[in-house]
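Q: Hi! First time doing this. I have a protein sequence and I read that you can turn it into a structure. Is that right? Here it is:
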Amino acid sequence: MKFRLFLSSFFVCFAVSVLSAQELPSWKILEEAEVCFEELKYGEALRLSNDALKARKSEIQDEFNTLEISITPAQVRRYGKEFDKVIEILTEREQKKAVSIINKYLDLYGEEYFNNDIYGMLAWLKAKETYPEANYLIGQIYQVEGELETAGYFFEKAYKDRKYLDVYETQYQILYDMAYLAKVQGDKEKLEKMLLLILDDDKNFKDKNFLQSITRTIKQNKSKNVDRLYLIYRAESKFSIKALYELSHIYEDAGMEELSVQCVALATVEAFTHFLGIMEERDSLFSYSNLTKFFIECAKYDDICIWAQENHVWELFYLLALKSKQMGCRSFSTQFLLVLSNSLPDEHFKTLSRMALTSQNKK
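A: Yes, that's right. Below is the predicted 3D structure, encoded as C-alpha cells:
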C-alpha cells in the first residue's frame, strides 16, 4: 500500500513536470506544487511554484491583451464603461473570451471592487502579473527548510500583493506565518505589528467602548455575570482569535494587564459567537441559556472541539477566569472556574480549572 501511495504522489508531480511545458493553467501548476509540498517533496514543490509564477504572468498578459483589444472599437466604447453594458455589446459581437475574463473577475471580486468600470479592471489587470499564492507557498517551503530570512522575504512579497489574492482570507494565513517568524526570531516589535495587522479588520477590537463595556461587566464581580457576559455580547471575527491570544501575552509581559484582559475577553466572545452560529444552524431548537449548557453542546461536535484546540479557545476561557481573579473579581472568577471545571470540553483545562478553583477556595 505504501509503495502504491508513493507511486501515486510521484506520478502526480512527474505528470505536472512534463505537462507544465504544455501551458497548464497557473492554478493547476500551483495546486500540484501544494501536493508535492504536502508529500515533503520540497525541491519539486519549489520548481512548480516558480513555474506557476511564470504561467500566471503569461496568462495575465494574454487576458490583458484580449480585453484591451475587445474594448478598443468605437462601437464598444460608445456603450460606456459599466460592466453590464460592456458585457452586452461584447456578447453581441461574440467576444466570448473577453466576456469570460470579465465574468471571472466579477465573480471573484464583484463590480464595486472595480468601481463598475471596465477600464478600472483593465488597469488592475495590467498590474496583476504577480501571483501572491505562489510566493506564499515558496515562503512556506523555505520556512520548513529553515531558511527563515528567505521565507520572510516571500511572505512579505505575498502580503504586499494581497489585493491580487484569489481568496481574500489568505492574507490572514500569510500574516500569521509572518508573526510566527517574528516570534521565532525574537522580534517582539514585529510580532506585535503583524498581530495588529491581523486585527486591523476586526471592528470589535477597534471599538474601545465595546471592549470597556465587556470589562465593566466582569468588574461588577457578580457570579451571575459569567452566563450574562455571553448573553449580552456578540462579536464575529474568527480570524482574530489566535492574534488576540498572542497579543494578550505581549500586553501581559509589558505590564498592560487591562489590555491583556480585553484581548482575552474579546477572544472568548468571538469564539463563543462563532460556535453559537454553527450550533444554531445545525440545531434550530438550540439557543443559549447558560455557559454550562453551551459547553456541553460544544462537546457534541468534533469539528468545533478540534478548531477550539487549534485556536487556543479553551485556554482563553481558562485564562479569563484567572485574570478576572487578578483584577479582584473573586466572585466572578470562582463561578467561572466552577463552570469550566464541570463542563469544559477539554480535559486538560477542565482539570486546571478544578485545581485553580480548589486553590482559590482555600484562601
